[in-house]
Amino acid sequence: MNNNTQNKIGEKPEGMTAVPQKKKKGQNPVIRIFKFIGVVFLCVIEEIAVFFGKLFKKVKASSPSLKVGAVAVALTAVCLALLIALTMMVSGKDDDGKADCTIGAEKHVMANSEQSTIPAEPETKPAPNTNAAPDTEAAPDTEAAPDSDAAPDTEVAPDTEADPGSDEAPEEESDIRGLPTGRYAVTLDFYSKDDIRCVTVERTVGELLSILEIYLSDTDILRCEADTVINADTVIYVDEISYGTDSVATEIAYETEYYDVQTVPRGSEVTGRRGTLGSSVVEYSVTYVNGVETERVQTAEYISTYPVSAVVYRGVGGYVDSHSFSYYIDCNSTMYYSGGITASGLPADENVVAVDPNVIPLGTRLYIPGIGVRIAADTGGAIKGNIIDICFDRDNPMAAGYGRRDIRVYILD
Length: 413
Description:
The chain has 413 residues and is an alpha+beta fold. The protein has four domains: 26-117; 184-241, Ubiquitin-like (UB roll) (Roll); 244-311, Single Sheet (Resuscitation-promoting factor rpfb fold), CATH 2.20.230; 321-412, Beta Barrel (Barwin-like endoglucanases). It has helices at residues 29-58, 64-117, 205-211, and strands spanning 184-190, 196-200, 203-204, 220-222, 229-230, 234-252, 256-266, 269-273, 278-289, 292-305, 310-315, 318-320, 323-337, 352-354, 365-368, 372-378, 387-392, 405-412. Strands 1, 2, 4, 6, 9 and 10 form a six-stranded mixed beta sheet that branches. Strands 13-17-14-16-15-18 form a six-stranded mixed β-barrel. The longest helix has 54 residues, at 64-117.
């Protein structure tokens, strides 16, 4: 350091504001008296302690009640002594502590003033091809701010570099977002998790996830590529992918089968069997992104229920022994002798038969091979269903031994 800049002992440093020293006030007389009384009381307590020490020896063999009383008195005396000593300490601290604090503060101000008034030595740069160091130029002296107790700020001369060993990091520049230049606000937006917000420098999305120790599972998908460079504030979306299956059932229509028969009245149709719908199933593998279906691939197709065809009989009629008939009925037949009046009012003779009106309506003309044309005109209590009772005269040779026979009866048009 140059001698020109070194302060002489006893002189006030240039550019430093002196802090006036406060005079230490004298102690309060009341406090002095209180301290004196405390000292006297401590001596008395000491004598009492000696006395009780001797007393404990004497009452060692005495009754327990005396021992308890002696201990209580001794403890009371000790507590009073501690209370007085504590009071003295507090009063002394209250009187002297303020001066100590003030002195410490003054020393702190002085230290700051000395540091601020001593000019810093500029760096010396060696001249080319010379061994001697050039003259150093001192930084301009700093002036103390008027009417200020604090030391003035020092200005750094132009082209002065910051000390690399300094504890304070250089302040980073900020942009209008409030973030340091070259740093970007990033939000990781997960579909089914809480968002993660961070600030990062320029790097790829994959590098950021690795630094944050975020490991994506098989069900997580980045909307952007992992090598995408983050060079601005951005939102990185992480979608959730899930898989499922779906089955779609489709009805299969049944077919209708038609059969021309002579057991159904000519021109009419009778359903012999009702049709039943079938069912086919198509299974799909479905991909969902954030709960929304994005892809569907067929994996299987099969028939779960086969349809059953309907059967319909259509009457076509026909001819038998030159007689045109609408349809025929296979019946079980019996005989009865003629005579009397039928249920329809016709005479009971070989022109009539008895039938069940629910099967063959009364008045229907029918043809029985080997017997001829008859009219359904009569009924009977035993004639139910496909049973007919044929009326014969007593002298007809077919009546004898007729019994019960199965015959085919043709219903004529």
